[in-house]
Amino acid sequence: MTKERFRELSHAVAVFVFVFVFVFVFESSAFSSENDVSAVEGKDGKYTVHHVLRAARGMRAFVPQHLVEFEVKKETPDAPDVSIGKVRVDYDSSQNLKGSTQLSFGTFTRAGEYSYVLSEKKNNVSGMEQSTAKYRLRVQVSSDGNGKLKIKCVTAETDGKKRDKIEFTDVIRKKGELSISMNVQGDSADKQKEFPIVLKLSKAKTYDGNGIAEAIIENRDSKEKRKIRVAYGNQKQVSLKHGDVLRFVLPIGTGYWAYQKCERDGYSPDVWSSDGDSIPYSGSAGDGKYDFGLTNGCKGNGGLMDGMSKDVFLRGLDAKINVTNVFNGKKVSLIKTLPDDYLGFEIIGIIVVVCVIMGVAMVFRRRRL
Where, if anywhere, are coiled coils annotated (predicted)? Predict the structure, then answer.
Protein backbone atom coordinates (compact mmCIF):
# COMPACT_ATOMS: atom_id res chain seq x y z
CA MET A 1 0.00 0.00 0.00
CA THR A 2 1.43 3.28 -1.09
CA LYS A 3 1.63 6.30 1.16
CA GLU A 4 -0.87 8.19 -1.01
CA ARG A 5 -3.37 5.33 -0.79
CA PHE A 6 -2.88 5.13 3.00
CA ARG A 7 -3.52 8.84 3.38
CA GLU A 8 -6.73 8.64 1.31
CA LEU A 9 -7.94 5.69 3.36
CA SER A 10 -7.10 7.43 6.66
CA HIS A 11 -8.92 10.57 5.53
CA ALA A 12 -12.01 8.57 4.55
CA VAL A 13 -12.05 6.78 7.91
CA ALA A 14 -11.72 10.09 9.78
CA VAL A 15 -14.61 11.61 7.82
CA PHE A 16 -16.76 8.53 8.47
CA VAL A 17 -16.04 8.63 12.20
CA PHE A 18 -16.82 12.37 12.38
CA VAL A 19 -20.12 11.98 10.53
CA PHE A 20 -21.09 8.99 12.69
CA VAL A 21 -20.34 10.82 15.93
CA PHE A 22 -22.19 13.97 14.76
CA VAL A 23 -25.29 12.04 13.73
CA PHE A 24 -25.25 10.03 16.96
CA VAL A 25 -24.93 13.13 19.13
CA PHE A 26 -27.60 15.02 17.17
CA GLU A 27 -30.08 12.16 17.34
CA SER A 28 -29.34 11.63 21.03
CA SER A 29 -29.88 15.32 21.74
CA ALA A 30 -33.09 15.39 19.76
CA PHE A 31 -34.35 12.27 21.47
CA SER A 32 -33.35 13.62 24.88
CA SER A 33 -35.01 16.95 24.15
CA GLU A 34 -38.22 15.25 23.12
CA ASN A 35 -38.29 13.09 26.20
CA ASP A 36 -37.29 15.89 28.57
CA VAL A 37 -40.36 17.96 27.67
CA SER A 38 -42.38 18.64 30.82
CA ALA A 39 -45.43 16.42 30.96
CA VAL A 40 -48.72 17.45 32.52
CA GLU A 41 -49.52 15.74 35.80
CA GLY A 42 -51.99 12.93 35.40
CA LYS A 43 -52.98 9.49 36.58
CA ASP A 44 -55.13 6.73 35.11
CA GLY A 45 -55.72 8.76 31.96
CA LYS A 46 -56.97 11.83 33.84
CA TYR A 47 -55.09 15.14 33.87
CA THR A 48 -55.45 18.00 36.36
CA VAL A 49 -56.51 21.54 35.41
CA HIS A 50 -55.94 24.15 38.14
CA HIS A 51 -57.82 27.40 38.69
CA VAL A 52 -56.90 30.37 40.93
CA LEU A 53 -59.16 33.32 41.72
CA ARG A 54 -57.13 36.23 43.09
CA ALA A 55 -58.91 38.80 45.20
CA ALA A 56 -57.93 41.66 47.49
CA ARG A 57 -58.56 41.78 51.23
CA GLY A 58 -62.25 42.00 51.95
CA MET A 59 -63.20 40.83 48.48
CA ARG A 60 -64.90 37.69 49.75
CA ALA A 61 -68.18 39.59 50.02
CA PHE A 62 -68.06 40.14 46.26
CA VAL A 63 -66.89 36.72 45.05
CA PRO A 64 -70.07 35.09 43.80
CA GLN A 65 -70.45 31.35 44.09
CA HIS A 66 -70.14 30.17 40.52
CA LEU A 67 -68.72 27.45 38.29
CA VAL A 68 -65.66 28.04 36.12
CA GLU A 69 -66.08 26.31 32.77
CA PHE A 70 -63.54 25.40 30.09
CA GLU A 71 -63.65 24.65 26.39
CA VAL A 72 -61.42 22.42 24.24
CA LYS A 73 -60.95 22.72 20.47
CA LYS A 74 -59.51 19.86 18.41
CA GLU A 75 -56.67 20.74 16.04
CA THR A 76 -56.20 17.16 14.82
CA PRO A 77 -59.21 16.09 12.69
CA ASP A 78 -59.42 12.50 13.97
CA ALA A 79 -58.74 13.39 17.60
CA PRO A 80 -61.29 11.99 20.06
CA ASP A 81 -63.42 14.27 22.23
CA VAL A 82 -62.22 15.56 25.60
CA SER A 83 -64.22 15.43 28.81
CA ILE A 84 -63.47 18.18 31.36
CA GLY A 85 -65.19 19.11 34.60
CA LYS A 86 -66.00 22.50 36.13
CA VAL A 87 -64.29 24.29 39.03
CA ARG A 88 -66.57 25.40 41.85
CA VAL A 89 -65.63 28.73 43.46
CA ASP A 90 -67.03 29.19 46.97
CA TYR A 91 -66.98 32.04 49.47
CA ASP A 92 -63.66 32.17 51.27
CA SER A 93 -61.62 34.61 53.35
CA SER A 94 -58.47 33.83 51.38
CA GLN A 95 -57.06 36.21 48.79
CA ASN A 96 -56.31 33.25 46.51
CA LEU A 97 -59.21 30.87 46.00
CA LYS A 98 -57.82 27.66 44.54
CA GLY A 99 -59.67 24.84 42.85
CA SER A 100 -59.09 22.14 40.26
CA THR A 101 -60.81 19.71 37.94
CA GLN A 102 -59.75 16.91 35.61
CA LEU A 103 -59.84 16.27 31.91
CA SER A 104 -59.77 12.92 30.11
CA PHE A 105 -59.57 11.86 26.50
CA GLY A 106 -61.82 9.59 24.48
CA THR A 107 -60.65 6.50 22.58
CA PHE A 108 -57.70 6.99 20.23
CA THR A 109 -57.77 5.07 16.93
CA ARG A 110 -54.10 5.23 15.98
CA ALA A 111 -50.66 5.85 17.40
CA GLY A 112 -49.12 9.29 16.92
CA GLU A 113 -49.60 12.87 18.08
CA TYR A 114 -52.90 14.65 18.67
CA SER A 115 -53.30 18.38 19.31
CA TYR A 116 -55.93 20.37 21.25
CA VAL A 117 -56.34 23.97 22.49
CA LEU A 118 -57.72 24.46 26.01
CA SER A 119 -59.10 27.80 27.28
CA GLU A 120 -61.50 29.22 29.87
CA LYS A 121 -65.06 29.99 28.85
CA LYS A 122 -66.20 33.60 29.15
CA ASN A 123 -68.57 34.43 31.99
CA ASN A 124 -70.59 37.48 33.01
CA VAL A 125 -69.27 37.92 36.54
CA SER A 126 -69.09 41.65 37.31
CA GLY A 127 -65.62 42.89 38.17
CA MET A 128 -63.85 39.67 37.18
CA GLU A 129 -60.85 39.84 34.86
CA GLN A 130 -60.69 36.42 33.26
CA SER A 131 -57.59 34.55 32.18
CA THR A 132 -56.81 34.79 28.47
CA ALA A 133 -54.37 31.86 28.56
CA LYS A 134 -54.64 29.23 25.84
CA TYR A 135 -52.89 25.90 26.34
CA ARG A 136 -51.91 23.79 23.34
CA LEU A 137 -52.13 20.19 24.50
CA ARG A 138 -50.10 17.61 22.60
CA VAL A 139 -51.01 14.00 23.31
CA GLN A 140 -48.43 11.34 22.40
CA VAL A 141 -50.12 7.97 21.77
CA SER A 142 -48.09 4.77 21.32
CA SER A 143 -48.77 1.08 20.72
CA ASP A 144 -47.73 -1.58 23.20
CA GLY A 145 -46.95 -4.04 20.38
CA ASN A 146 -50.09 -6.06 20.97
CA GLY A 147 -52.40 -3.72 19.13
CA LYS A 148 -53.33 -1.76 22.23
CA LEU A 149 -52.92 2.03 22.26
CA LYS A 150 -51.99 4.04 25.31
CA ILE A 151 -51.16 7.66 26.14
CA LYS A 152 -47.41 8.02 26.47
CA CYS A 153 -47.51 11.62 27.73
CA VAL A 154 -49.43 14.90 27.50
CA THR A 155 -47.56 18.20 27.16
CA ALA A 156 -48.97 21.73 27.56
CA GLU A 157 -47.63 24.88 25.92
CA THR A 158 -48.68 28.51 26.38
CA ASP A 159 -46.99 31.79 25.46
CA GLY A 160 -44.38 29.81 23.57
CA LYS A 161 -43.27 27.88 26.67
CA LYS A 162 -43.90 24.32 27.74
CA ARG A 163 -45.47 23.94 31.17
CA ASP A 164 -45.68 21.10 33.64
CA LYS A 165 -48.95 22.45 35.03
CA ILE A 166 -52.19 23.70 33.49
CA GLU A 167 -53.40 26.69 35.50
CA PHE A 168 -55.81 29.54 34.82
CA THR A 169 -55.83 32.67 37.03
CA ASP A 170 -58.76 35.08 37.25
CA VAL A 171 -58.65 38.39 39.16
CA ILE A 172 -61.50 40.21 40.89
CA ARG A 173 -61.19 43.99 40.53
CA LYS A 174 -63.77 46.23 42.19
CA LYS A 175 -63.63 49.79 43.45
CA GLY A 176 -65.30 51.63 46.30
CA GLU A 177 -65.43 55.16 47.70
CA LEU A 178 -63.52 56.37 50.74
CA SER A 179 -64.70 59.73 52.11
CA ILE A 180 -63.61 61.99 54.98
CA SER A 181 -66.20 64.60 56.04
CA MET A 182 -65.43 67.56 58.31
CA ASN A 183 -68.06 69.15 60.53
CA VAL A 184 -67.60 71.99 63.04
CA GLN A 185 -70.04 73.02 65.75
CA GLY A 186 -69.74 76.69 66.60
CA ASP A 187 -70.35 80.13 65.10
CA SER A 188 -69.49 81.29 61.59
CA ALA A 189 -65.89 82.03 62.56
CA ASP A 190 -65.45 78.49 63.90
CA LYS A 191 -66.71 77.08 60.62
CA GLN A 192 -63.97 78.87 58.70
CA LYS A 193 -61.23 77.25 60.74
CA GLU A 194 -59.18 74.62 58.88
CA PHE A 195 -58.17 71.39 60.58
CA PRO A 196 -55.08 69.46 59.39
CA ILE A 197 -55.76 65.82 58.48
CA VAL A 198 -52.91 63.37 57.81
CA LEU A 199 -53.65 60.21 55.84
CA LYS A 200 -51.80 57.30 54.28
CA LEU A 201 -52.76 54.65 51.70
CA SER A 202 -51.36 51.20 50.98
CA LYS A 203 -51.93 49.28 47.75
CA ALA A 204 -54.51 46.55 47.39
CA LYS A 205 -53.16 43.14 46.32
CA THR A 206 -54.82 43.52 42.93
CA TYR A 207 -53.65 47.12 42.37
CA ASP A 208 -52.03 47.70 38.97
CA GLY A 209 -51.87 51.51 38.72
CA ASN A 210 -49.08 54.10 38.74
CA GLY A 211 -48.82 54.44 42.52
CA ILE A 212 -50.81 57.69 42.74
CA ALA A 213 -54.38 58.06 44.04
CA GLU A 214 -56.42 61.10 43.07
CA ALA A 215 -59.14 62.65 45.21
CA ILE A 216 -61.55 65.59 45.16
CA ILE A 217 -62.33 67.87 48.09
CA GLU A 218 -65.78 69.41 47.70
CA ASN A 219 -67.55 71.73 50.11
CA ARG A 220 -71.18 70.83 50.73
CA ASP A 221 -72.22 74.46 51.17
CA SER A 222 -70.16 76.44 48.66
CA LYS A 223 -69.78 73.59 46.13
CA GLU A 224 -66.15 74.59 45.72
CA LYS A 225 -63.91 71.78 44.49
CA ARG A 226 -60.19 71.11 44.47
CA LYS A 227 -58.11 68.09 43.51
CA ILE A 228 -55.31 66.42 45.43
CA ARG A 229 -52.92 63.56 44.65
CA VAL A 230 -51.71 61.04 47.21
CA ALA A 231 -48.75 58.70 46.64
CA TYR A 232 -49.28 55.21 48.05
CA GLY A 233 -47.06 54.54 51.05
CA ASN A 234 -46.46 58.23 51.86
CA GLN A 235 -48.17 60.49 54.38
CA LYS A 236 -50.28 63.30 52.96
CA GLN A 237 -51.57 66.29 54.94
CA VAL A 238 -54.69 68.13 53.82
CA SER A 239 -56.67 70.94 55.46
CA LEU A 240 -60.42 70.55 55.85
CA LYS A 241 -62.95 73.05 57.14
CA HIS A 242 -66.63 72.74 57.94
CA GLY A 243 -68.55 71.21 55.03
CA ASP A 244 -65.49 69.82 53.23
CA VAL A 245 -65.71 66.22 51.99
CA LEU A 246 -62.61 64.45 50.72
CA ARG A 247 -63.47 61.60 48.31
CA PHE A 248 -61.32 58.81 46.85
CA VAL A 249 -62.37 56.04 44.46
CA LEU A 250 -60.05 53.13 45.32
CA PRO A 251 -59.74 49.40 44.66
CA ILE A 252 -61.40 47.19 47.25
CA GLY A 253 -58.67 46.02 49.60
CA THR A 254 -56.83 49.36 49.75
CA GLY A 255 -55.35 49.95 53.20
CA TYR A 256 -55.69 53.37 54.83
CA TRP A 257 -55.39 55.26 58.09
CA ALA A 258 -55.91 58.89 59.06
CA TYR A 259 -55.56 61.21 62.03
CA GLN A 260 -56.23 64.85 62.89
CA LYS A 261 -53.42 67.02 64.18
CA CYS A 262 -54.63 68.70 67.36
CA GLU A 263 -53.57 71.56 69.59
CA ARG A 264 -54.97 73.36 72.63
CA ASP A 265 -57.31 75.64 70.73
CA GLY A 266 -60.64 74.99 72.43
CA TYR A 267 -61.85 72.33 69.94
CA SER A 268 -62.68 68.76 70.90
CA PRO A 269 -62.86 66.18 68.05
CA ASP A 270 -64.92 63.05 67.77
CA VAL A 271 -65.17 60.55 64.91
CA TRP A 272 -67.38 57.84 63.47
CA SER A 273 -65.92 55.67 60.73
CA SER A 274 -66.74 52.49 58.82
CA ASP A 275 -64.63 50.49 56.36
CA GLY A 276 -67.78 49.53 54.48
CA ASP A 277 -68.39 46.10 55.94
CA SER A 278 -67.28 45.49 59.53
CA ILE A 279 -68.38 47.06 62.82
CA PRO A 280 -68.03 50.89 62.73
CA TYR A 281 -65.40 52.63 64.84
CA SER A 282 -66.02 55.68 67.01
CA GLY A 283 -63.91 57.76 69.36
CA SER A 284 -63.63 61.18 70.97
CA ALA A 285 -61.06 63.38 72.67
CA GLY A 286 -60.96 66.55 74.69
CA ASP A 287 -59.18 69.76 73.81
CA GLY A 288 -55.48 68.93 73.66
CA LYS A 289 -52.26 68.76 71.73
CA TYR A 290 -52.32 65.02 71.02
CA ASP A 291 -53.03 63.72 67.52
CA PHE A 292 -56.45 62.12 67.22
CA GLY A 293 -56.83 58.85 65.30
CA LEU A 294 -59.73 58.75 62.83
CA THR A 295 -59.52 55.03 62.03
CA ASN A 296 -59.46 52.00 64.27
CA GLY A 297 -55.84 51.14 65.05
CA CYS A 298 -54.54 54.64 64.32
CA LYS A 299 -53.39 55.63 67.77
CA GLY A 300 -50.42 57.42 69.23
CA ASN A 301 -49.26 60.98 69.53
CA GLY A 302 -46.86 63.33 67.89
CA GLY A 303 -44.17 61.69 65.79
CA LEU A 304 -45.16 58.24 67.07
CA MET A 305 -48.40 58.20 65.13
CA ASP A 306 -47.03 56.60 61.97
CA GLY A 307 -45.09 53.91 63.79
CA MET A 308 -48.00 52.94 66.05
CA SER A 309 -50.70 52.84 63.39
CA LYS A 310 -52.18 49.85 61.64
CA ASP A 311 -54.19 50.43 58.51
CA VAL A 312 -57.73 49.23 58.05
CA PHE A 313 -58.81 48.44 54.53
CA LEU A 314 -61.62 49.19 52.17
CA ARG A 315 -64.01 46.24 52.37
CA GLY A 316 -67.22 47.52 50.86
CA LEU A 317 -68.37 49.95 48.24
CA ASP A 318 -68.74 52.89 50.62
CA ALA A 319 -66.31 53.62 53.48
CA LYS A 320 -66.86 56.80 55.50
CA ILE A 321 -64.99 58.84 58.09
CA ASN A 322 -67.10 61.55 59.72
CA VAL A 323 -65.20 64.03 61.90
CA THR A 324 -66.85 66.62 64.15
CA ASN A 325 -64.93 69.33 66.00
CA VAL A 326 -66.89 71.05 68.77
CA PHE A 327 -65.77 74.39 70.17
CA ASN A 328 -66.20 74.23 73.93
CA GLY A 329 -63.62 76.74 75.11
CA LYS A 330 -63.85 80.44 75.90
CA LYS A 331 -63.48 83.05 73.20
CA VAL A 332 -60.05 84.59 73.60
CA SER A 333 -59.67 88.38 73.61
CA LEU A 334 -57.77 90.10 70.84
CA ILE A 335 -54.80 90.95 73.09
CA LYS A 336 -54.50 87.33 74.25
CA THR A 337 -54.38 86.11 70.68
CA LEU A 338 -51.30 88.25 69.96
CA PRO A 339 -47.90 86.57 70.18
CA ASP A 340 -45.90 87.40 73.29
CA ASP A 341 -43.09 88.90 71.20
CA TYR A 342 -45.40 91.59 69.86
CA LEU A 343 -47.64 92.16 72.86
CA GLY A 344 -45.37 94.76 74.50
CA PHE A 345 -45.09 96.81 71.30
CA GLU A 346 -48.87 96.76 70.80
CA ILE A 347 -49.51 97.99 74.35
CA ILE A 348 -46.94 100.79 73.96
CA GLY A 349 -48.55 101.80 70.67
CA ILE A 350 -51.98 101.99 72.27
CA ILE A 351 -50.59 104.13 75.13
CA VAL A 352 -48.93 106.52 72.65
CA VAL A 353 -52.16 106.93 70.66
CA VAL A 354 -54.13 107.64 73.84
CA CYS A 355 -51.56 110.22 74.97
CA VAL A 356 -51.69 112.01 71.60
CA ILE A 357 -55.47 112.18 71.70
CA MET A 358 -55.39 113.56 75.26
CA GLY A 359 -52.74 116.14 74.29
CA VAL A 360 -54.78 117.40 71.34
CA ALA A 361 -57.84 117.66 73.55
CA MET A 362 -55.95 119.75 76.13
CA VAL A 363 -54.69 122.15 73.41
CA PHE A 364 -58.21 122.81 72.14
CA ARG A 365 -59.44 123.36 75.68
CA ARG A 366 -56.78 126.03 76.41
CA ARG A 367 -57.60 127.93 73.23
CA ARG A 368 -61.22 128.16 74.24
CA LEU A 369 -60.22 129.58 77.60
Answer: none
